[in-house]
């Protein structure tokens, strides 16, 4: 085993593949990180600006000249503008995903799209009821049409009222608190600083406008708009994606799945689906598993077609269809290197452009499908929801056609595979609790469960893959803190066996007893990145049950290996919802002392939620536990 590979990943399957990469000289994302060293210190601190052509400008972090950009912008202004733009991009990515789901629901409801259907009528009615849409005596298609209209309206409405989804899902106490902060800030500063989002598209455009040359230079005002934009993601864009995908494809139910590269099967045509939106991946799975395609695969000498997921679209498939997951984001190159992948099919987000070049070393068809993620060197098969069946057939056939070109001498699939119990939608959690959050609240009140930690986010090649995810998770459950989460963290936890029932043995006595009684692992998979909205809904249900604000609850979040702008949006909407959030690596804000203070101390006072930075799983778990204990004391439990 190469020392280098072991430094790069905590996952034994990844280590094997990294050894292979080293032997065969396949370039990986880890190699490219090395070539980037030393990385720019100004960039890491957030103090470089290239918003206009008088720049780029950089601020000296040691207080020497230059202390201002050419236009006079301070380090704090530059840091705040950069962070706001990150949140706007992250929110936009999630929300545009939600828009796609809403538009598809409308097309299905009015009969324009015949390739998709509504799978979960019960969820449709529940969402409609929550939104105040009449369901009595109406057909489910009529109801779906209205739900889609309400969702679509959240994107483009122009009035000043808060977005309907947020109004109907966010607990009243949190809405009131946000309103009070708006009023207080106005009284104190004379400046209008809104926190309640008016329209999903509007809040992102607002950031693009106010960060244009010569607009908002006030760190506080910039940060408040950042929170508003992020809230439009969590309580609307992402939430719309989750709720409508449940309606279209089914609300996840508890099931056992397989995780890690061992889900690939050398005797089958292996198709990996990577990206984010289940609109594509659900269809590819449905078509790939059809008898027609299985037979086509047998004709070329395979035993059939095997579909595996990767990243968040993998999480969507695993939650709803029980499809095995080949890995998280840092596994995407490694999966291709197994030489056993006939097609890697991608839609949007978290897809390395490097995959095109790497696929050329193999017979792998690297297939892009979305005009928002075209990648040079890939085979592009444009997806179109109205012709979904035909296009999915073409995609699967491309994989089958590649099978005879597989070079068997290049095939190496690590045998690592873990069992994971997944599918913890809020509906399933309520079901196992007997229909209400009361038993969970009781367990928290008694102290068998001290609190709940939500861990989310990516792999980041700067952090040893999965190590922080796994060790932090173990440290928390050992301390009787229930861990829930999504995204690439969830895949890391699944690969490490932390979502297996046997993980109960790693939990503290109190948490273990609760998990045994409910027959669940101590680490719950709640879905993809957009499904962080499920955690908000759960937090909202707990808060409403106790008639407190979310910020009063013993809840804490962490993104210990984060890297994308979407993670900035997620972290910020948790903070805006009242949840303290740990980040590692440190975000690019440390060059702006005022911004750092606003996001840590200021946010705590204003919002109840705030960011904190901590390095190392044990220190982080300790700090998260302290926060939970503080909240418990304040609640008098
Ligand atoms: Fe420099 Fe100001 Fe232009 Fe930014 S906006 S590049 S700080 S002159
Ligand atoms: S896929 S945003 S690398 S979690 Fe959602 Fe993973 Fe982060 Fe992408």
UniProtKB/TrEMBL annotation:
<feature type="binding site">
    <location>
        <position position="458"/>
    </location>
    <ligand>
        <name>[Ni-4Fe-4S] cluster</name>
    </ligand>
</feature>
<dbReference type="GO" id="GO:0051539">
    <property type="term" value="F:4 iron, 4 sulfur cluster binding"/>
</dbReference>
<dbReference type="GO" id="GO:0050418">
    <property type="term" value="F:hydroxylamine reductase activity"/>
</dbReference>
<feature type="binding site">
    <location>
        <position position="49"/>
    </location>
    <ligand>
        <name>[4Fe-4S] cluster 2</name>
    </ligand>
</feature>
<keyword id="KW-0560">Oxidoreductase</keyword>
<feature type="binding site">
    <location>
        <position position="71"/>
    </location>
    <ligand>
        <name>[4Fe-4S] cluster 2</name>
    </ligand>
</feature>
<keyword id="KW-0408">Iron</keyword>
<dbReference type="GO" id="GO:0016151">
    <property type="term" value="F:nickel cation binding"/>
</dbReference>
<dbReference type="InterPro" id="IPR010047">
    <property type="entry name" value="CODH"/>
</dbReference>
<feature type="binding site">
    <location>
        <position position="529"/>
    </location>
    <ligand>
        <name>[Ni-4Fe-4S] cluster</name>
    </ligand>
</feature>
<dbReference type="GO" id="GO:0006091">
    <property type="term" value="P:generation of precursor metabolites and energy"/>
</dbReference>
<keyword id="KW-0479">Metal-binding</keyword>
<keyword id="KW-0533">Nickel</keyword>
<keyword id="KW-0411">Iron-sulfur</keyword>
<dbReference type="Pfam" id="PF03063">
    <property type="entry name" value="Prismane"/>
</dbReference>
<dbReference type="GO" id="GO:0043885">
    <property type="term" value="F:anaerobic carbon-monoxide dehydrogenase activity"/>
</dbReference>
<feature type="binding site">
    <location>
        <position position="312"/>
    </location>
    <ligand>
        <name>[Ni-4Fe-4S] cluster</name>
    </ligand>
</feature>
<dbReference type="GO" id="GO:0042542">
    <property type="term" value="P:response to hydrogen peroxide"/>
</dbReference>
<dbReference type="InterPro" id="IPR004137">
    <property type="entry name" value="HCP/CODH"/>
</dbReference>
<feature type="binding site">
    <location>
        <position position="52"/>
    </location>
    <ligand>
        <name>[4Fe-4S] cluster 2</name>
    </ligand>
</feature>
<dbReference type="GO" id="GO:0004601">
    <property type="term" value="F:peroxidase activity"/>
</dbReference>
<feature type="binding site">
    <location>
        <position position="48"/>
    </location>
    <ligand>
        <name>[4Fe-4S] cluster 1</name>
    </ligand>
</feature>
<dbReference type="InterPro" id="IPR011254">
    <property type="entry name" value="Prismane-like_sf"/>
</dbReference>
<dbReference type="InterPro" id="IPR016101">
    <property type="entry name" value="CO_DH_a-bundle"/>
</dbReference>
<feature type="binding site">
    <location>
        <position position="40"/>
    </location>
    <ligand>
        <name>[4Fe-4S] cluster 1</name>
    </ligand>
</feature>
<comment type="similarity">
    <text>Belongs to the Ni-containing carbon monoxide dehydrogenase family.</text>
</comment>
<protein>
    <recommendedName>
        <fullName>Carbon monoxide dehydrogenase</fullName>
        <ecNumber>1.2.7.4</ecNumber>
    </recommendedName>
</protein>
<feature type="binding site">
    <location>
        <position position="57"/>
    </location>
    <ligand>
        <name>[4Fe-4S] cluster 2</name>
    </ligand>
</feature>
<dbReference type="InterPro" id="IPR016099">
    <property type="entry name" value="Prismane-like_a/b-sand"/>
</dbReference>
<feature type="binding site">
    <location>
        <position position="276"/>
    </location>
    <ligand>
        <name>[Ni-4Fe-4S] cluster</name>
    </ligand>
</feature>
<feature type="binding site">
    <location>
        <position position="488"/>
    </location>
    <ligand>
        <name>[Ni-4Fe-4S] cluster</name>
    </ligand>
</feature>
<comment type="subunit">
    <text>Homodimer.</text>
</comment>
<keyword id="KW-0004">4Fe-4S</keyword>
<feature type="binding site">
    <location>
        <position position="350"/>
    </location>
    <ligand>
        <name>[Ni-4Fe-4S] cluster</name>
    </ligand>
</feature>
């Amino acid at each position: 085993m190469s020392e280098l590979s072991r430094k790069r990943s905590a996952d034994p399957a990844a280590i094997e593949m990294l050894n292979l990469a080293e032997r065969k000289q396949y370039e990986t994302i880890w190699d490219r990180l090395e070539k980037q060293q030393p990385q720019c210190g100004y960039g890491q601190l957030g103090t470089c600006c290239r918003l206009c052509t008088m720049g780029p400008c950089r601020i000296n972090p040691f207080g020497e000249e230059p202390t201002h950009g050419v236009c006079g912008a301070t380090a704090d202004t530059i840091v705040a503008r950069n962070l706001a733009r990150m949140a706007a991009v992250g929110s936009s990515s999630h929300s545009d995903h939600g828009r796609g789901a809403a538009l598809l629901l409308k097309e299905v409801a009015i009969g324009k799209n015949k390739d998709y259907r509504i799978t979960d009528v019960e969820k449709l009615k529940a969402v409609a009821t929550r939104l105040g849409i009449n369901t009595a005596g109406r057909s489910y298609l009529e109801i779906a049409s209205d739900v889609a209209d309400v969702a679509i309206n959240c994107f483009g409405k122009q009035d000043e009222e808060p977005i309907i989804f947020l109004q109907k899902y966010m607990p009243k106490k949190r809405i009131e608190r946000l309103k009070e902060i708006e009023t207080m800030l106005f009284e104190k500063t004379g400046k209008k600083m809104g926190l309640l989002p008016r329209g999903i598209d509007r809040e992102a455009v607002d950031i693009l406008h106010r960060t244009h040359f010569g607009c908002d230079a006030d760190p506080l005002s910039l940060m408040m708009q950042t929170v508003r934009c992020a809230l439009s993601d969590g309580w609307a864009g992402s939430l719309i994606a989750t709720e409508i995908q449940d309606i279209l494809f089914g609300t996840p139910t508890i099931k056992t799945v397989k995780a890690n590269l061992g889900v690939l099967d050398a005797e089958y045509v292996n198709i990996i689906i990577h990206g984010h939106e289940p609109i594509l991946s659900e269809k590819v799975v449905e078509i790939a598993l059809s008898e027609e395609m299985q037979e086509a695969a047998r004709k070329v000498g395979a035993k059939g077609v095997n579909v595996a997921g990767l990243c968040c679209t993998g999480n969507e498939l695993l939650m709803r269809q029980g499809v095995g997951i080949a890995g998280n984001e840092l596994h995407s190159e490694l999966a291709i290197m197994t030489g056993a992948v006939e097609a890697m099919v991608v839609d949007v987000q978290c897809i390395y452009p490097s995959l095109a070049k790497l696929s050329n070393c193999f017979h792998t068809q690297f297939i892009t499908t979305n005009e928002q993620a075209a990648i040079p060197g890939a085979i592009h098969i444009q997806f179109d929801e109205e012709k979904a069946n035909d296009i999915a057939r073409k995609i699967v056939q491309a994989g089958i056609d590649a099978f005879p070109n597989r070079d068997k001498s290049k095939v190496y699939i690590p045998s690592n595979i873990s069992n994971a119990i997944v599918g913890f939608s809020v509906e399933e959690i309520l079901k196992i609790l007997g229909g209400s959050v009361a038993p969970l609240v009781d367990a928290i009140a008694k102290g068998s469960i001290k609190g709940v930690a939500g861990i989310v986010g990516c792999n980041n090649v700067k952090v040893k893959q999965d190590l922080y995810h796994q060790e932090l998770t173990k440290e928390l459950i050992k301390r009787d803190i229930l861990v829930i989460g999504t995204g690439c963290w969830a895949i890391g936890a699944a690969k490490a066996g932390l979502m297996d029932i046997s993980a109960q043995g790693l939990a503290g006595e109190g948490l273990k007893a609760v998990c045994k009684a409910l027959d669940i692992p101590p680490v719950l998979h709640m879905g993809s990145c957009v499904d962080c909205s499920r955690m908000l809904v759960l937090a909202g249900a707990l808060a409403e049950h106790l008639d407190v604000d979310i910020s009063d609850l013993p809840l804490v979040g962490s993104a210990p290996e984060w890297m994308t702008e979407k993670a900035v949006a997620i972290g910020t909407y948790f903070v805006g919802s009242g949840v303290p959030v740990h980040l590692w690596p440190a975000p690019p804000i440390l060059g702006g002392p005022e911004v750092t203070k606003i996001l840590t101390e200021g946010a705590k006072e204003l919002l109840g939620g705030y960011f904190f930075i901590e390095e190392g799983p044990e220190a982080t778990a300790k700090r998260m536990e302290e926060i939970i204990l503080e909240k418990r004391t304040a609640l008098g439990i």
